[in-house]
């Protein structure tokens, strides 16, 4: 079933359909506003044509991407990766927003009220870049309202040579080999540095976990990138206590993954103990032997 009714043309915004786009503001600079039927889209110049055609043909950016993905990543749902429609430049990652936790049963449906998650992410990404953080470059964001609910998609440029912190700690590398202990320690240290910077900049995240921290390697440099920016509040007021809160939240998510990750009892696989994880995240001053 389509997310929104496909249109044979560009479509016309209804009185209700235009409520999310509003007037241009600093955070959406560089994006063009598009409506296709009930769908509302913010797209950069290079994504305008593809976004319009995707919704006209498939009803949503996500469904169009699933049909032509060059590879598929995995999050709360399949995450298609597209070859850049222009034929040059980095591939695009197309993510559908899904609920988690106690609201997981609602899947990809959100109650309409305030700004939708994809547009919040556009706004927060702009703020984070102004603060000097690296974030995946957003090329399009879409919302599909239906009655009192909506679905939403986000399209970002693919970050090469990068894996989520969860994959580094519990998965395999591109060759299929298990990540070694030193790489795991390095990834956690990068996450700790990111948390310290977030705290200093007054950025809070309500759902910091090992799946929304990306560990990227560029030449000899390794750094952590924060994902899922719709969960951020960029307040600009530094609070040293926030680093501890974010670190503990991340550590809890790692322990949860560790409990669900299947491995044989006699396979240490270079896995880190809880004490080591706490120490590397700056949650414990006690040295780990």
Shape: globular
Specify the number of helices. 7
Structural class: alpha+beta
Provide the succession of SSEs: EEHHEEEEHEEEHHEEEEHH
* Share of β-strand residues: 15-25%
Q: What value does the average pLDDT take?
A: 84
Low-pLDDT segments: 7-18, 263-267
Described by strand count, sense and barrel closure, the largest sheet is: 8 strands, antiparallel
Cα radius of gyration in angstroms:
20 Å
What is the domain tally? 2
Helix content: 25-40%
Q: Using DSSP, what is the number of strands? A: 13
Give the end-to-end Cα distance, rounded to a whole number of Å. Answer: 56 Å
Question: What does the model show?
Answer:
With 289 residues, this protein is an alpha+beta fold. Helices cover 31% and strands 22% of the residues. The chain is globular, with a radius of gyration of 20 Å.
List the helices and strands and how they pair.
Blueprint: E1 32-36, E2 39-43, H1 45-58, H2 61-67, E3 71-74, E4 78-82, E5 92-96, E6 110-111, H3 117-130, E7 138-146, E8 149-157, E9 162-164, H4 165-170, H5 181-201, E10 203-205, E11 213-218, E12 221-226, E13 232-234, H6 240-260, H7 274-280
Antiparallel strand pairs: 1-2, 2-7, 3-4, 4-5, 5-8, 6-8, 7-8, 9-11, 10-13, 11-12
Helix pairs in contact: 1-2, 5-6
